[in-house]
């Protein structure tokens, strides 16, 4: 097998893929059912994958349901993203012992293989690579975790109710950044997976599976299924210059309307696959002989996030929501060269108030058009 080759494997070979990756020393992480959701965690075997499970998503709603078939990847994004394995929610960065002697912190991550990465999340990994792994001072923790990462991507053929990756240009198909890419198909009530090798390592792993070369008709059918999924997105961003829109709408009265519904709970930032902000906290024992410094995820919705000497800069929920959306869709371009949103829809599904990012941006676009019409 060489990069670019496409083969077909069955469900048993998918289990074999997990075994082969583990044998090569990878910690394999993939989707599985737990506590009423599809979560991402370490796989001991391919049998833990969520065969026959789908999800129903809407603003403020996420529900699992049993499907009529045994599809493995026919579910949209769950509450967790791959970010948690590259940029952990909480990690120790410093230990100080007696006599103020700094002690080394054990932080040697095992190389990982991500199984089931969709186009939106593949884009988010690339964005985090620019944010945390690029620039003058890359984050050594992130770069160590991302080093030698093996990615098994999945082309989406069944988008969820809050997905809008097509309008963000990140899906439903994957293009780059993977070692293997799967497209799942149900053929005569059995699951088949079209597998494309995207790297030398991917081709080597694929050669260890019970695979046969894909027929041209199978490749065409899989491609058509992915293309059709782009037209079945549950949501879409308005077809306008969003970066300019959020900049020009900074004084819009609509922010007050959003603030009247927003709980400033920070759920949207916690589930977002690209939000990267952190805070640090120092803890000591009662004797004062031992201290630790921990890094944890932070959110621009926290009152303390914008605290400066003398007080907090953003007191209102209106200003905090505007900051989040304006940075995500606008000034992120200035800092990192792209939007910070990948269209996964997690912020919509996991907002307890049911606030829909795409609806709010659409309303800003409508108000901007109304103002233009009023001014002639």
Order of helices and strands: EHEEEEHEEEHHEHEEHEHHHHEEEEHHH
CA gyration radius, whole angstroms: 22 Å
Q: Per DSSP, what share of the residues sits in E-state strands of 2 or more residues?
A: 15-25%
Largest sheet: 8 strands, mixed
Distance N to C terminus: 63 Å
- Can you count the beta strands? 16
Main sheet: strand order:
3-2-8-9-10-11-1-12
What general outline do the C-alpha atoms trace?
A: globular
Key words describing this protein structure:
376 residues; alpha+beta; 2 domains; 8-stranded mixed beta sheet; 4-stranded antiparallel beta sheet; 23% strand
Give the helices and strands, then pairings.
Layout: E1 6-10, H1 11-23, E2 27-34, E3 37-42, E4 53-58, E5 61-66, H2 83-86, E6 90-96, E7 102-103, E8 112-117, H3 119-131, H4 140-146, E9 150-154, H5 165-168, E10 180-187, E11 190-197, H6 200-206, E12 212-213, H7 216-230, H8 242-248, H9 254-261, H10 267-271, E13 278-284, E14 291-297, E15 307-308, E16 311-312, H11 317-336, H12 346-349, H13 357-374
Parallel strand pairs: 2-8, 8-9, 9-10
Antiparallel strand pairs: 1-11, 1-12, 2-3, 4-5, 6-7, 6-14, 10-11, 13-14, 15-16
